Every structure is written in structure tokens, then in C-alpha cells.
From TrEMBL:
Secretion signal, residue range per the UniProt entry: none
Domain of life: Bacteria
InterPro entries associated with the record: RuBisCO, RuBisCO_lsu_C, RuBisCO_lsu_C_sf, RuBisCO_lsu_fd_N, RuBisCO_lsu_N_sf
Database matches in Gene3D superfamilies: Ribulose bisphosphate carboxylase, large subunit, C-terminal domain (3.20.20.110), RuBisCO large subunit, N-terminal domain (3.30.70.150)
SUPFAM superfamilies xref list: RuBisCo, C-terminal domain, RuBisCO, large subunit, small (N-terminal) domain
Limits of the Ribulose bisphosphate carboxylase large subunit ferrodoxin-like N-terminal domain: 18-131
Native species: Pseudonocardia charpentierae
Annotated ranges, domain Ribulose bisphosphate carboxylase large subunit C-terminal: 142-309, 341-420
Protein name per Swiss-Prot or TrEMBL: RuBisCO large subunit C-terminal-like domain-containing protein
Protein family: Belongs to the RuBisCO large chain family.
Length: 424
């Protein structure tokens, strides 16, 4: 096969069934990037590091990857600029017929074979053709479905995660649930560290927490939706999720990086209620500077394609060194319109308190969930006051007021700002 047959222009690829994967790679300045990109395209599709029998012209036409773009970063056109290494963005077209409606095979194809092809490259972007997006389905509920479930259609939602993170019996956790549900919270979830342990089985928690929620509703008239954490080995996770739903749960949570994106996809196809997708254990996917994938893909696009209806996100404001650009791109991957795939409700977690509300609503708008844990359970006046303070801050921003001004009228909000700070 002529070397030139490994390359295609964007115009000849865009309407065909290819997954377009863009990578960043650094090589010695004298390296042949076009040869390296072509080798990678072969290695991720039909080839190996040596020629093998059995490859036909029909197979190449249908299953072979192609190089679409190679861009140098920074763009250098003259040989007079001396440098030891060069950075490149290379875009590879991967035939979707090789992948099918499978997130595990998508990952295996896009980043899983780089050792055998001797490439250390970071996946930084994916363009999914309509045909594959339609097969993957994505969220069954998404923002619209979750809002319908909760009955709130305009403002950000308030979510609390039960604290302490683990070690609570169902009865002890139910008392915290009750005290929290008395305040202005919409959703309550388990902490990601509370799974299905012997001291607090998921189904027992569901029964105890829902009873606590009914007690609170009798006093407040407000309903609170509980998301139990069903993260586990895939077979046990699906069984636990089904039993949790049978016990009355109207949503479930799983840590997709722990169970695998395919585990989230399987759960979404069978559970029949909204899924809160948690990023716990996702760091190794994106923290490497030259391998893995970018955070907007790992925490944005992929949990969306796999069927998460809400997705907890990382922000630059909670102590984690995520770049602000990557955080905003992650939100875009979750929420911007995409053919055949509904938008996901971003859940802002990690250091969220009333003093952060103006920043998050200012940057992201109203279609967000503000996940406050310690700022609710750790409020000086108790969990209900902590939840009320979050709602008071949201209501102030919705009304075009400064949160600090609204605090003069609400002691719960004032005490929260005094303890947790006025701004991020």
C-alpha cells in the first residue's frame, strides 16, 4: 500500500463513519511525525508492528485508520529555528465499524494499544459521528428528566452528600438525612466512600433514608430525592441497583472510573432511574502530561456518552490544581447540544459553600447542581440551616442581588459566610 494512502483530508472524512481522535505528542525534532502518525493509525486498527498475512484491500478500505491532520505546536515553518523536541497535534480517523456501541471498545481503540505501537500520546479531543452517538444513546434522563423528577425547572439544584463519609449505620445516617432534608436541599447522595458494606447495606440505607425523607416532607412539604451509591463489581452493582430501585430509590450513583465507563453504560441501560456519575478514581485517566486523555473527555464527554444523567465535576476552586480552561471545557462537554445525546446535569462538588454560589452561577448559569457537603453538615446552626443558607444564596443571585447583601436578612446565610468565607 502506498504511504500516501494513509492520509486523508478532513473534507473526505467528515461525513463518513469515523471517530476522529486528536492526540498531542512530543518527539525529537528530527523524528518523522508523518511516519509516526501513520504507524499509530495502523496499530490502532488492523495492524501490528510487523507485516502479517491476511490483510486484504477490502479490509484496509473498511477497517484501517487514516491520518487526517498533523499540526505542529507551536507552528514552525522555517528550518532556521533550532529546537531539540517538537510538539504535534495529530488527528486519526478510526472506523466506527471497529468499535460499535461500546465505550470499552472506544477506549481500547482510541488509547488502549499505544504500547505496541511505541507511541506516548495524550488523547485531547474526540469527534463522535452521528451514527455512533445515536447507538450509544447517552443519558436516559439528562437535565430535563432530572428537573422533572425534582419538580424544579429554573434555579440550580442543591445536593448534599452525607457526612461523615463512611462508618455510619443506616439508622445514624437516616438521622443526618432527616436533619438535612428539613432545610432547602433537593437531592441527597451517599459519599463515594460509602458503598455496600456489611455495616450499612445499600437496601437497608434506602429504606431508612426514605423513611427519614418522608418524616421531613411531612414537616416541610418539600420532597428530597436520594441517590444511593451502588458502585461495585459490575454484576453486583447492577443487582444492587435493581434492589435499591425496588426498595423505592428514584436514582442511583456510581463511580464510573472505578466500575469502568462500560459499567456505567450497562447500568444506564437497565436501571430505569437517573444515574449520578461520580469521578472518583478518574485522576489516572487524565493527570499524566503525555499519556491518557484530557479531563474534558474523561470527566465530560465519556460519562455523557456512557449514560450519566448527572455528573460530578472537578473545579479549580476547591484546592485541586485543575486549569480553569479545562474545567470550563468539561462543563461544555457535559452540557452543549450534541446530536442524539441529551445534556448532563453538572454537579459542582469540592469546597462548595454559599460564598461560592455567585462564582459558579456567574460562570455556568442555572443548569447546575451545587453539591455542598461539609458546608451543610458543618454549618454552625446545623444541617438544615446549612441547606437553607445554600438556597438563600441561590435565591439572591436569581434575584440579581449580591449574596453578601442577602446575608443581612438571613442569619443562616450570614453565619455560613462568616464560617466558610464570602468568595472563592
Amino acid at each position: 500500500m502506498p504511504a500516501s494512502d494513509m492520509f486523508r483530508l478532513s473534507e473526505n472524512i467528515r461525513d463518513l463513519d469515523y471517530l476522529l481522535a486528536t492526540y498531542y505528542i512530543e518527539l525529537p525534532a528530527e523524528a518523522d511525525i508523518l511516519a509516526k502518525a501513520a504507524s499509530y493509525a495502523v496499530g490502532q486498527t488492523i495492524g501490528t508492528w510487523v507485516e502479517v498475512p491476511g490483510v486484504t484491500a477490502e479490509m484496509r478500505d473498511r477497517h484501517l485508520g487514516r491520518v487526517v491532520k498533523v499540526l505542529e505546536a507551536p507552528p514552525v515553518d522555517l528550518g532556521t529555528q533550532s529546537q531539540e523536541t517538537s510538539g504535534y497535534f495529530m488527528q486519526i480517523a478510526l472506523p466506527t465499524v471497529n468499535i460499535g456501541p461500546s465505550i470499552p471498545m472506544l477506549l481500547a481503540t482510541a488509547i488502549g494499544n499505544d504500547v505496541s505501537t511505541s507511541v506516548q500520546a495524550k488523547l485531547v479531543d474526540l469527534e463522535v459521528p452521528d451514527s455512533l452517538a445515536e447507538e450509544l444513546v447517552g443519558p436516559r434522563f439528562g437535565i430535563e428528566g432530572v428537573r422533572k423528577l425534582v419538580g424544579v425547572h429554573d434555579r440550580p439544584l442543591v445536593l448534599n452528600m452525607i457526612k461523615p463519609c463512611t462508618g455510619l449505620t443506616p439508622e445514624a445516617g437516616a438521622q443526618i438525612f432527616y436533619e438535612t432534608a428539613l432545610g432547602g436541599v433537593d437531592l441527597i447522595k451517599d459519599d463515594e466512600l460509602m458503598g455496600n458494606p456489611s455495616f450499612s447495606p445499600v437496601v437497608d440505607r434506602v429504606k431508612a433514608y426514605l423513611a427519614a425523607g418522608e418524616r421531613a416532607r411531612d414537616e416541610t412539604g418539600r420532597d428530597v430525592v436520594y441517590f444511593p451509591n451502588v458502585t461495585d463489581r459490575a454484576d453486583r452493582m447492577i443487582d444492587t441497583a435493581r434492589r435499591a430501585v425496588d426498595a423505592g430509590a428514584r436514582g442511583v450513583m456510581c463511580a464510573y472510573a472505578s466500575v469502568g465507563y462500560g459499567g456505567l453504560q450497562a447500568l444506564s441501560e437497565v436501571v430505569g432511574v437517573p444515574i449520578l456519575a461520580h469521578y472518583a478514581a478518574a485522576g489516572p485517566y487524565f493527570e499524566g502530561p503525555g499519556t491518557g486523555m484530557s479531563a474534558p473527555l474523561a470527566l465530560g464527554l465519556l460519562p455523557r456518552l456512557a449514560g450519566g444523567d448527572l455528573a460530578i465535576t472537578i473545579t479549580p476552586y476547591g484546592g485541586y490544581p485543575l486549569r480553569r480552561l479545562q474545567y470550563l471545557k468539561m462543563i461544555q462537554q457535559l452540557t452543549l447540544p450534541r446530536p442524539h445525546v441529551a445534556p448532563v446535569f453538572p454537579v459542582i462538588g469540592g469546597g462548595v459553600h454559599p460564598g461560592t454560589v455567585e462564582t459558579y452561577m456567574g460562570e455556568l448559569g442555572n443548569d447546575i447542581v451545587l453539591g455542598a457537603g461539609g458546608a451543610i453538615q458543618g454549618h454552625p446552626d446545623g444541617a438544615a440551616a446549612g441547606a437553607d443558607a445554600m438556597r438563600q444564596a441561590i435565591d439572591a443571585v436569581m434575584a440579581g442581588r449580591r449574596v453578601a447583601d442577602a446575608a443581612q436578612e438571613h442569619p443562616e446565610l450570614a453565619h455560613a459566610l462568616e464560617k466558610f468565607g464570602a468568595t472563592v
